[in-house]
Protein: Ectonucleotide pyrophosphatase/phosphodiesterase family member
Amino acid sequence: MLYPTIDDLTPLLLIFQAMWCMGASIPVPTMENSKTTEQHFAQESCSFLQESSQEECPSFWAQGQPPVILISLDGFRAEYLSRFALENTEHRGEFAATTIRCLAERGVSSPYMMPSYPTITFPNHYAIVTGLYPESHGIIGNQFYDPDLRATFSIYTDGTDPKWWQNGEPIWTTVRRQGKVSATYFWPGSDVKFAEEEQRSPNYFFRYNKTTSFRQRVDQVLEWMDLPADKRPALTTLYFEEPDSTGHKAGPNTANVTEKVTVVDRQIRRLIDGLIARNIANCVNIIVVSDHGMADSPPGKQLVDLEKYVPDIQQSALTFLGPVTSIRPLNETQEEENRIGDALSCKDPRMRVFNKWELPYRMHSVRSRRIPNLMLDMDLSWRAVIKQEAWSGGGAHGWDNVYLDMQAIFIAHGPSFKNQEVVRPFENIQLYNLICHLVNVTPAENNGTWGALHHLLSDPPNLLVDADQEFPDMPQILRKLADTREEKYKPSACAYVNHKETEKTSPAMEIEMKMTEERENELFIAHAPLGIPIVIPTEPSPSNLFNDPNHVLLVNEDYLTGFDVELGIPLWTAYTISGNTTNNINDGHWIEDPRLDQNHTGSCQRLSNIVRRNEVAYTHLFPKEFATQKVDAWLDTNLLEVPSSISHFLETMTDMLAEASISRGPLNVISGPTRHRPASIFYVVTACKVDVTVGEWNHTTCPAEYRDLQAFLLPIGGWKYQGACTSDRNFIAYNVASLKDVEQVTGFQFFPDLPLEDKLSLLARTTLDSALVLDPTRY
Structure:
């Protein structure tokens, strides 16, 4: 298996500990001690759950579906699960989170769950219950300014004002609107009252009060479980401020935090014991999550003072400072944005300055007007400040969600979940659809993928394809060569892009281009082993290529191309390379593709009608470095113009693909331009991990768990403020993407020949899942 069972998880947890637990107050056990503790833990500590699983549900619980209790442990980073309980700063030989680990041992868990960006409390709690990224649900931070409302949101003063919570439908609303009962004991957004629609609030909820004891919260949840079926919540949420509060004060790598881990773990044990006493412990689905992790952030250290570079920043801009910093110039002109952005750009290697449209797509930080145009991304543990800050804590969060310290937890236990299963990490926006399935309600529109987490279930539903769904036809394959015999030396449109005054075509290449249908089929298997990209209409769809007669298919020895013969633009290219594919066929000149007729527009013809600009470079979508034929790579159907300033990024990407094909075996690559803002070049790269016990698989036969995938969305415009001080490889790593993101911006669905379950597995993977081409953490 790609991911171990919980019994084999100790080495992984030790790795987490070695990476994160650098403080002397948290002793790291030896492997021998850890293994002994793990065995004792598995055999003895979880016996209470084993006994409860044998209980039968009482008669009044036998009807309907098991209710869901969703528990949030604020700021509980994934590494905390490996810590040992402390007594006088010495570990007691048992884990600090014994109960939570038992739920994982007897249920489903993940090494971590990826939070949404920014890794902040309110945005992520609302992402979990709506299935929406913060840019979509609107709660983009704990504090932010809304230019339409002309007001500033703060969790301390505006957390229950409905004007801030108009976007998205939280799960408690979905449940109540569909005739079921929902309850919350604290959750951001749950105590907002909408005067015009009572059903937007849970049936039962409490106004947030931090002083309410954890015990009181747990006991209230148990009382809700005692209600008759028509009043009992189908969904209950339960929230604890710890270990986040202590993590902020003392820092994550302290005994203080470890003790709070034990505190919240005991409260979950209290809940489980209460369910056991009612004989319903195996009649309830329990999901334990956190919103984000925590990193060291000591006061007065690792700071970047913005006033050092923009002396008037307090007077000229509205700023929200910290691990993630936003800057909204009071004078919202392009000139003022450029003044501030240029003043901050490349000034400190621990800080990156972006126009929000240049932020990686994976951050999903564009679509809300509440997100200002200037954003600062800081290295882990570094914060932006103005002058001397009042910060006195030891830990913080909010940084890029690719940092391991920012990762959250996911554990699920109950009759609907598998037993002793460790699954791949996934994004927290996927939880909403899962919970909707568990409580049998229809989800509202969200950013998750229906069915992406069904593999967690003991009895997953059938994922049936809609019988009325329309599928596109196969694009026409252009085989007929344009007749050049009558004008075999006609002027070539490619003279322009070859920087020549005139140029003649040559019919000699026609002989090289011809191939049999049998050879075509072989090349389809070689270059598109899981099918070519297809377009399934969605609302809204960035593409109009569905059954578009202008979308044609070109089959070459080295690659396949989807081409738009009306626009004269390659849409995608697909090819497979192995370690011996690099060659010396670099010299050449662009050639009109002879398969295009006089009614078609090729890239050379299109570009000949455009005024040549020095800042534009002509590049090969299928890299010429991988060509085995003299002609293939130089066909103008493989030509793409890009700004000269980013052509070196694409060259570096080609080098990295070549390196990966040597170290990882054959790679299948699908790449092309996107049509969204900002325009990008996408790459979807796959390989099959080798299992020495069974030999090598190919791209077609590779089992789902061994299929490796890494994707990228490289912005064609580069970076306005950071381009001069970012290495090519860091630029590429920063713009790693998920397959789900690439499908969203291109309108394509990749790998149509895969079984649906296998495709869902790929769509659910996070940007941290693979290091096929490079390590996405990049730091």
Notes: The first strand starts at residue 68 and ends at 73. The chain has three domains: 6-142+149-296+402-456, 303-392, 491-764. The chain has 20 helices and 32 strands. The CA atoms of residues 482 and 594 lie 5 Å apart.
